């Protein structure tokens, strides 16, 4: 891929490659954290194809209500525990992030390919322990920097749209400026432009930016190690 003439988008096939790379690296660096799971698309009669064979999900991420962030803890932090309840299966096998409040909110995140924009889109929903969905005004879990990021951002905003695979309303970070800033991100690194590793790095790099809005952060060592590994493989192939 010639990054100098690249428009910052992905084909459906490239999205699938990037998605599997993200899921693999996430699990490798964060084995105690809920995994990103690839969900195959279901062909539905009368509906147009999404032109991609699936999407990524990270579900039942639990956080106490209050002004705290969803974060990526180190492996040494003992912040995880299984939640069991006889009343709701909703909280089974969920992950708990400690905070100072007793109110629990559950987050589901989906990374879906947009055929219109040819880029990934982050969809999310939030619900209470009884399964009731929460609206944006009720969300006190988002990072303190989210409002500032969204107000100053020229590349995204939170909106509510129908989930393209589930046909239900979900919140999403609008992808209107994604291709532009992804092109800028990769074109600034000459080593990536020459070695053609953009596809494998795409979703990891993308989530390291958009995830900040909802408190999901990519460990620096994940991105750095993946980049080094890909460039090393390219060097060996060239040799």
Strand content: 15-25%
- Look at the structure and give the mean pLDDT: 76
Silhouette:
globular
Structural class: alpha+beta
Tally of helical segments: 6
Q: Give the SSE string.
A: HEEEEEHEEHHHH
The N- and C-terminal alpha carbons lie at a distance of: 19 Å
Number of strands: 7
Main sheet? 7 strands, mixed
Radius of gyration, CA atoms, in whole angstroms: 18 Å
Keywords: Autophagy, Transferase, Ubl conjugation pathway
InterPro entries: Atg3/Atg10
GO cellular component, one term: cytosol
Protein name: Ubiquitin-like-conjugating enzyme ATG10
Structural notes for this entry:
With 239 residues, the chain is of the alpha+beta class. The protein has one domain. The chain has helices at residues 12-29, 146-152, 178-187, 190-195, 198-210, 220-238, and strands spanning 37-40, 54-64, 95-97, 104-114, 119-128, 158-162, 169-173. Strands 1, 2, 3, 4, 5, 6 and 7 form a 7-stranded mixed sheet that branches. This is Ubiquitin-like-conjugating enzyme ATG10. Keywords: Autophagy, Transferase, Ubl conjugation pathway. InterPro entries: Atg3/Atg10 (IPR007135).
Question: What attributes characterize this protein structure?
Answer:
transferase; Atg12 conjugating enzyme activity; alpha+beta; 6 helices; 7 strands; 7-stranded mixed beta sheet; 239 residues; ubl conjugation pathway; Ubiquitin-like-conjugating enzyme ATG10
Any chance you could write out the topology, listing elements then pairs?
Elements: H1 12-29, E1 37-40, E2 54-64, E3 95-97, E4 104-114, E5 119-128, H2 146-152, E6 158-162, E7 169-173, H3 178-187, H4 190-195, H5 198-210, H6 220-238
Parallel strand pairs: 2-3
Antiparallel strand pairs: 1-2, 2-4, 4-5, 5-7, 6-7
